[in-house]
Design brief:
The structure holds 2 protein chains of 2 kinds. Chain A is of the alpha/beta class. Chain A is built from 11 helices and 10 strands. In chain A, strand 9 and strand 10 form a beta hairpin. Chain A starts with 10 loop residues before the first strand and ends with a helix. Chain B has a domain of 194 residues. Classes of the chains: A alpha/beta, B mainly alpha. At the A-B interface, helix 2, strand 6, helix 3 and helix 6 of A face helix 6 and helix 7 of B.
Chain lengths: 270, 295
């Protein structure tokens, strides 16, 4: 228990286990640190436990009858493991959930209003909206049409904008690139990077698209079968041969004489 | 064809219809926040009427004080219902919540029967029953008062749903999970919608209690209120008002034509036909929201 004030991460999660319905163990001891002001990625394939990790941090597990059964989650040094989701949002954790999930029957403008913290004054809210429309000019053009009719990219931008209204210190995004054209992914990731730099907001990004994610984050964790199997700086991960082969579509020019005959996935899991 | 008689039927039908709307607005409020038709709204309306009676006749308060006080009590009751009965059901299948509201209705009816008995009591609002003529057309004063209340509530709630709290309630209706994710308290929002619906129930209970007396039959308003709400689109307050007027007119004029043919009692048939046809032909009603599908 060392107290290092200057190097305290904004979020630290220590060997957290999550149970769904009291029986299904979805993550089995995940430890993740997000340093203040950094962008961190959680990589891994479908069903690895990335989304569950985010829900454990944001408190949305409860809505799906899941709970943290072991370990602890600290945000700015405070234990938040058992806290209600809305209190965590008040503290500055906002989770952009998978699949965009904008309020379809509300306009983008109303989507932003809906997310405003209770105490925010009208002028602060308007200033906040203008800032978000500056980041996402496409949204400004369609601010008064129904959100359900926005394109996938615009909905993702709205979902991020809606999260920004809550004034997060830690923004968590679950697969923001899902189902979007590559140029849109580049645009959205570029904006995320800008927000991270402009406002010093820490970002925890869950992605299957490791190639795009590793371009903007400083550090990454690889999760498989509910465990962290590898972590390191983005550079180190990009140059790792296993990551290249499984997640970056690399391994170009494989020399079939030297193909390894053991399963590298298995080695990670032991 | 006697045009004056027909327009008298239509106008009185429309006024009665607005009283159905008054009831249906309560259903819409709850549907807007939790996507469940509240089968307990009839029971709530009856309880609202009994609470007003208890405060005015039994405790001796004047009506102008008893009615707002009853509204406050019912506001609290609405929050209480969410806290005790519904919170643990959040996120469960809609049919579970529907069954819970049915159970609540039976519970509220049983409770009022146990406390206040089954005899019909009168509200005694003091609205005159002298005939009132609009030109050549005779209308009932209490219906006129009730229609006025319905329209003012309609305007008030239209404004409310543009306020920040109102927008949050609409967000909750759209997506619970997304609401939680941005820190909206879904529980408090659903509680608020029940509280507001309970206040509307007081208004409906007072007006309908004056018209037909306060007894168990008040809870049967649910059938007509539900028909109006479904025709209007379940989540549209404007829909509830327009559909109320339409149903009132169809019912009143239609019954006048049909009653001589079938020997009376065709009102209920007309209401049933409207409900069934709406569900078959236009399930999202006149103004209800569609599920948005992008192509």
């Amino acid at each position: 228990m060392q107290e290092k004030v200057e190097a305290q991460p904004i979020l630290s999660m220590n060997s957290v286990e999550v149970l769904y319905d009291n029986v299904m163990l979805a993550i089995k001891g995940v430890s993740v640190q997000v340093p203040q002001g950094e962008m961190i990625a959680l990589l891994g394939s479908n069903g690895a436990g990335k989304s569950t990790t985010l829900k454990a941090i944001s408190g949305l597990l409860k809505a799906e009858r899941g709970r943290v059964s072991r370990g602890e989650i600290k945000f700015e040094g405070t234990d938040i493991t058992g806290m209600l989701a809305q209190n965590r949002v008040d503290m500055g954790i906002c989770h952009v959930i998978e699949g965009r999930r904008v309020f379809e029957h509300l306009t983008p403008d109303e989507n932003l209003t809906a997310a405003a913290p209770t105490g925010m004054s009208r002028s602060d809210l308007n200033a906040e909206k203008e800032k978000i429309y500056n980041y996402f000019p496409r949204l400004a053009e369609r601010r008064n049409s129904l959100s359900g009719y926005l394109s996938g990219g615009e909905q993702q931008m709205l979902a991020i904008g809606r999260a920004l209204v809550t004034q997060p210190k830690l923004l968590m995004l679950d697969e923001p690139s899902l189902g979007l054209a590559p140029f849109l992914v580049a645009e959205i990731f570029g904006i995320l990077q800008k927000i991270n730099q402009d406002e010093g907001m820490s970002v925890l990004l869950v992605e299957q698209n490791a190639l795009a994610a590793l371009e903007i984050v400083s550090e990454g964790y690889l999760i498989e079968n509910g465990r962290v199997v590898m972590n390191g700086t983005a550079e180190a991960l990009k140059s790792n041969s296993d990551i290249q082969e499984f997640y970056l579509g690399g391994g170009e020019g494989t020399d079939f004489h030297n193909v390894k005959h053991y399963s590298r996935r298995k080695r990670w899991l032991s | 064809m006697d045009w004056i008689f027909l327009s008298e039927l239509a106008i009185n039908g429309a006024l009665t219809g607005l009283l159905y709307s008054l009831f249906a607005i309560g259903l819409v409020l709850i549907y807007k926040a939790s996507s469940v038709p509240n089968l307990a709204q009839g029971g709530l309306t009856m309880v609202g009427a009994y609470v007003v009676l208890a405060l005015s006749h039994d405790a001796g308060l004047p009506l102008w004080l008893a009615i707002p006080l009853a509204a406050v009590i019912m506001f609290g009751l609405g929050f209480g219902i969410e806290r005790v009965a519904l919170r643990r059901l959040a996120g469960r299948p809609v049919v579970m919540i529907l069954m819970m509201t049915l159970g609540l209705d039976i519970f509220l009816r049983g409770t009022t029967l146990a406390i206040w008995g089954g005899t019909s009591r009168s509200m005694e609002l003091g609205v005159s029953y002298e005939p009132f003529f609009l030109g050549d057309i005779f209308v009932s004063r209490i219906h006129l008062v009730g229609a006025g209340v319905a329209i003012s509530l309609f305007v008030a709630f239209m404004l409310f749903f543009r306020s920040r709290t109102g927008i949050k309630l609409r967000a909750i209706a759209d997506d619970y999970m997304a609401s939680w994710s941005v820190g909206i308290s879904v529980e408090r929002g659903v509680g608020l919608s029940w509280a507001l619906a309970s206040v509307v129930a007081v208004a409906a209970g007072v007006i309908w209690g004056e018209i037909q007396g306060v007894d168990q039959a008040l809870s049967l308003l649910l059938l007509k209120g539900l028909t109006v709400a479904v025709l209007g689109g379940l989540d549209s307050i404007l829909g509830a008002v327009v559909a109320g007027i339409i149903l009132g007119i169809i019912e009143n004029v239609g019954a006048d034509f049909l009653d001589p043919l079938v020997g009376g009692g065709s009102r209920e048939l007309i209401v049933a036909a409207v409900l069934i046809l709406t569900v078959m032909i236009r399930p999202h009603g006149l103004f209800g929201r569609h599920d948005i599908e992008r192509v």
